[in-house]
Design goal:
This protein is α/β, with parallel strands linked by helices and 332 residues long. It has one domain: Ribokinase (UDP-N-acetylmuramoyl-L-alanine:D-glutamate ligase), CATH 3.40.1190.20. It contains twelve helices and 14 strands. It has a nine-stranded mixed sheet with strand order 6-5-1-9-10-11-12-13-14. A five-stranded mixed sheet has the order 3-8-7-2-4. A hairpin with a 5-residue loop joins strand 12 and strand 13. The two termini are 29 Å apart. One of its GO terms (molecular function) is kinase activity.
């Protein structure tokens, strides 16, 4: 009996967004446009240095995979998410936030461990680019213990966050999840997550992909870096070796899709972007919702581009719950 439409796995992070200038990034020694792993002391130092820049954004449980699964849940999918939080206030908040979004999680998430729930400091520059400094905390210990085989094998799709490649136990959990999903006939999807993950952990990502996933999500830079090519056409050709279909997001230019037989180019609504944090996560969540509801690739891509455009036009990596139904009403 099918219980879930989408089972996801990824890091559990509490996000803090701060508006900064390019000069601030330079002064702080932060590399622009990528995710950088930092320790707790470095993250606290950055927060202290930028106290005057804090913007009024509400707390929400984050992490790339969580953003995707929560979006899919708000669109209407039955969802489940494996992650790891600590027995601190942030961990309690994270569990409550998942529940409020309609996302189920394994019993292991209720057993509070020591340590610190992961945190992500997101620095937003005037060009809307996001530069992330992430302290994984207890998320770095995410392992096969956090998997729920019953929930996984009764799902239609399994979604793997590529950021897990930076954790030895997280990478093993992702590989195990993919293998179990494929054995059970559950379709698999994976996101390459970030150009830095591709650059420094490319081999690990290939291990996570194994013989190939059903759906691969990436942006242009990740596609080029992962395939070692210098053109979008060449990257699109090379990605076929790793998946049965893919979506390459192209920012304001929309997305390039491949359904296993044909390529499609879908356009993005033109909006004033102020914060690109979460755009790729939202694209994946909307796309996975659409194909779970048997929409074609073009229709799925158009919904995903609309959703991502909405995200970048406001602060924060996710939309309000009611915005998802508004997006669906506009395309159905």
């Amino acid at each position: 009996m099918q219980q879930y439409d989408l089972y996801g796995i990824g890091a559990a992070l509490l996000d803090t967004e701060i508006e900064v200038s390019d000069g601030d990034l330079s002064a702080l020694g932060v590399e622009k446009g990528i995710m950088t792993l930092v320790d707790d002391a470095r993250q606290k130092q950055l927060v202290d240095d930028l106290q005057d820049n804090l913007i009024t954004a509400k707390r929400a449980c984050g992490g790339s995979g969580a953003n995707t699964v929560i979006a899919a849940s708000y669109f209407g999918l039955r969802t489940f998410y494996s992650c790891k939080v600590a027995g601190d206030d942030n961990g309690d908040f994270y569990r409550n936030n998942l529940t409020a979004a309609g996302v189920d999680y394994p019993a292991t998430l209720q057993r509070a461990d020591g340590g610190t729930t992961g945190k992500c400091l997101v620095l937003i520059t005037p060009d809307a680019e996001r530069s992330m400094n992430t302290y994984l905390g207890i998320s770095e210990q995410l392992s096969v213990t956090e998997l729920d085989n019953e929930a996984l094998t009764t799902s239609r799709w399994a979604y793997i966050e590529g950021y897990l490649v930076s954790s030895e136990t997280g990478r093993k959990a992702a590989i195990t999840l993919r293998e179990q999903a494929q054995q059970a006939g559950v379709k698999t999807a994976l996101s390459l997550s970030d150009p830095a993950m591709v650059q420094f952990f490319g081999e690990g990502l290939r291990e996570m992909i194994g013989g190939g996933v059903d759906m691969l999500f990436c942006n242009r830079d990740e596609a080029l870096g992962f395939t070692g090519t210098d053109s979008l056409d060449a990257a699109a050709e090379a990605l076929r070796d790793y998946c049965r279909s893919f979506a390459i997001t192209l920012g304001a230019e929309g997305a390039l899709l491949w359904d296993g037989a044909q390529h499609y180019q879908v356009a993005s609504p033109q909006v004033h972007a102020i914060d690109t944090n979460g755009a790729g996560d939202m694209f994946a969540g909307a796309f996975l919702y659409a194909i779970n509801r048997d929409m074609g690739f073009v229709e799925a891509g158009e919904l995903a581009c609309r959703a991502a455009a909405q995200v970048v036009s406001q602060y924060g990596p996710r939309l309000q719950a009611e915005q998802h139904s508004e997006l669906l009403a506009a395309v159905i």
